[in-house]
Amino acid sequence: MSAFNARLNYLFNSYYHQTATQQEQDELFEIINSSASDAELAALIQEAWNSLQVNEPLFDATKSMDMLNSILQSKSHPDNDHQIRPPNHNQTWLKLGVAATLMVFVGFGAYVLLSNQNNKKAVNKKTIAKAQPAHDVLPGGNKAVLTLANGKTITLDSAKNGLLAKQGSAHINKTKDGQLIYNADGETGDNTAAMNTVATPRGGQYQLVLNDGSRVWLNSASSLSFPAVFRGKTREVEITGEAYFEVAKNAKMPFRVKVNNTVVEVLGTHFNVMAYNDESEMKTTLLEGSVKISNKDNSNILKPGQRALLKQSGRIAVNDDPDAEDAVAWKDGIFQFRDAGIETIMRQAARWYDVQVSFEGKIPVKEFTGRISRNVKASELMGMLKYMGVNFKIEDKHITVIP
């Protein structure tokens, strides 16, 4: 498959699964608009449709065109971000000479996207199930264990909503949307030793709100240790794995994140720290505010749109990161890659799907750019890579990548 064909397949797959960015949608419709050969484009569209493995019956061309026009002219879905639409600079996106196959695909695709978005007509799940591999792996979800200072453990994914425990002046609550919230009643009680830990397994994630109002998202195979109530001159927490922070501002009490022998210090900001043991370097990405990163040998200040890479040697390298949003897409339920190697992608997949990964033969030397929901099954993520010539097989909880 040529690079162009692979890109077109990827764009259609992303659009169909509602994960395409506005830029990717514009690129898709620009290809449709500028195609010099309708017959060739129709063949490519049919190939893209086949790759989706939806196995839904296609409508005839007349019905598809009527349905498409109805959708495009409809005013009943003004807030639908996934409605089929062209780039703003070209409102007559569907050329009259485009082959019937194109009309069928786009018409049906619009129908599925809109009906799914509004819960009026679901895709036939039994039909889709037949297209899935015999072996597949479900995505991860909200799973974590809370360990209190006294050693008591609470499995958060199965715990009832409401008050879970009290620690001095701290009340620990679980909300119906799967968050853990710490609230403190006044300043009574000594909470300096009431250290808690929330740990997610492989295939898990969790969100919590600390007693100062700071929000923390934990990715899979990660942990956060923190006091039930912050006391003293600093707010200190410690993490393993990966976490995204939105720190509540308090100039009198800096917020410090300890990661191994490194400290990230902030007053109030949004940033992501990725420090898995199986990664070659620790990465801190700053989206808002400023942070200071230091260890025993080095110290650096990050500005928004920058990232710091902590090498194994202990050196801290700071550089601009124009794609900072990619680093935090996981907290919004998205796998997002930009020029990523297959090993990088598979490490993320292994943690999220709780699978073992192996490579059969030589590891493919390719870079991938793409975006797909983390709520899809493992086969669908791997299907995105298949467009670029990387095959795979899934057996039980094991994914084998085949060059």
UniProtKB/TrEMBL annotation:
Q: Write down the superkingdom of origin.
A: Bacteria
Keyword annotations for this protein, in alphabetical order, are:
Membrane, Transmembrane, Transmembrane helix
Mark the transmembrane ranges. Answer: 93-114
* Ranges of residues in domain FecR protein: 197-292
One of its Pfam families is FecR_C
What InterPro entries has UniProt attached to this entry?
FecR, FecR_C, Ferrdict_sens_TM
Where does the Protein FecR C-terminal domain lie? 335-401
Stated name of the protein: DUF4974 domain-containing protein
